[in-house]
Structure formats: structure tokens, C-alpha cells
Task: inverse folding
């Protein structure tokens, strides 16, 4: 059973912790209660970002905000299945950074983007393919994220470059952006398990996503 439903609005979770807990914790408990093996998608935000080198499965967690805390509590509800932590997900549907930057890049000459958070933007198409591989491996905790790392500002510049948009990126700090929820400054994920599926570089994922959007 794939359990991808979640409260993912990180900032809104700060003002409605009960709502985030109802979805991310109680919702996962209800899924687990069905008795079937579960694939639970979790997040790089369960870490505090202080390590400054890739986080692996055995690293201690320390969530900084409500969203991260409830996703970690959701992990603990999974008794039989695979817990998949991934990073900075994007795809051709829904609300995500790539689609937001494409919209803003078409409307503006300049966009301010945070440059002091680092992660591994992960294309959902690649994560889906890796999930199929994962089902042939033992249940447990797995880190699956794209190869490479960048800041949000680096990612935005790559999006504009690949999409052919003439929009400048103004690099700003997390404090300047002023989001309500704290985020880890460094949340790159890597697996210490040699059999873990390995994803392509995030730029390959970006190209694949843009090609899908162009269809």
C-alpha cells in the first residue's frame, strides 16, 4: 500500500498543529491499522541541518517545526513496511517549486530565492521508479533522493535556464524570506545501505519534468 497522503504545507502547519497531526500522524495510524504492508513517504525535514554533510538512515533526528515533527511521528506509526525519506520533491502536477518558478519566471524579470538552504531536489518520476525497486528489498527505513545538491536559488536558476526564461534570481537569506516555519539549512539525504536504489542527478530530473510539462 502506497501512503503518499500528507499535510505538506510546512508553514500552515505552524498555525494549525492539530490539523497537521490529524493528517500526518492519525491518518498514518489509520492506514497502518488496515494491516497491509505500507510504503510511507517521509521527509528530509526530520533533521535539523546541523550536520553539514549528507544525512544517512542511522543519523539522529531532530525536527525543527510542526510539519517535520508530525511526519516523524507518522514514521513511528508504520509497523510493517518501508519508510522512504526523500527531499525537495517536484513533478509535473500539483503545487511545487518547479511549477511556481515557471509561473513567476514568466511574469517577472527578477525573483528573490533563498540561498542558505541546501538539499537534493528529487523528481517524483524517478522516486516512483525507485519505489518499485524498493519493494524487492527488505522493509525498513530508506533514504532515497536525487544525486547532487544545491540551494533553492541554484535550483531556480537551473529551472529558468532549462526552460529558456529570461528571469534573474536575487539570492536572499531564510531570514529575509520570512517563512513562519523553521527549515533545516542543510538536508541532503544519502543512503548508507549499499542495496538502496540510486536516483539520477537532480538536473536530469528537472529536464524530465520539463519535458513532461511540455507534452
Result:
Amino acid at each position: 500500500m502506497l501512503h503518499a497522503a500528507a499535510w505538506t504545507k510546512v508553514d500552515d502547519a505552524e498555525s494549525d498543529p492539530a490539523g497537521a497531526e490529524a493528517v500526518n500522524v492519525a491518518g498514518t495510524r489509520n492506514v497502518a491499522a488496515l494491516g497491509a504492508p505500507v510504503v510511507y513517504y517521509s521527509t528530509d525535514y526530520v533533521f535539523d541541518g546541523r550536520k553539514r554533510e549528507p544525512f544517512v538512515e542511522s543519523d539522529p533526528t531532530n525536527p525543527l517545526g510542526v510539519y517535520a515533527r508530525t511526519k516523524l511521528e507518522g514514521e513511528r506509526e508504520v509497523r510493517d513496511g518501508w519508510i522512504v525519506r526523500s527531499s525537495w520533491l517536484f513533478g509535473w502536477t500539483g503545487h511545487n517549486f518547479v511549477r511556481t518558478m515557471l509561473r513567476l519566471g514568466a511574469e517577472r524579470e527578477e525573483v528573490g530565492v533563498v540561498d542558505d538552504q541546501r538539499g537534493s531536489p528529487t523528481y517524483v518520476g524517478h522516486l516512483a521508479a525507485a519505489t518499485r525497486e524498493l519493494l524487492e528489498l527488505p522493509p525498513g527505513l530508506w533514504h532515497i533522493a536525487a544525486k547532487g545538491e544545491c540551494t533553492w536559488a541554484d535550483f531556480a536558476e537551473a529551472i529558468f535556464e532549462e526552460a529558456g526564461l529570461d528571469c534573474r534570481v536575487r539570492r536572499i537569506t531564510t531570514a529575509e524570506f520570512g517563512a513562519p516555519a523553521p527549515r533545516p539549512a542543510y538536508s541532503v539525504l544519502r543512503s548508507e545501505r549499499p542495496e538502496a536504489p540510486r536516483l539520477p542527478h537532480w538536473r536530469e530530473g528537472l529536464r524530465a519534468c520539463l519535458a513532461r510539462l511540455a507534452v
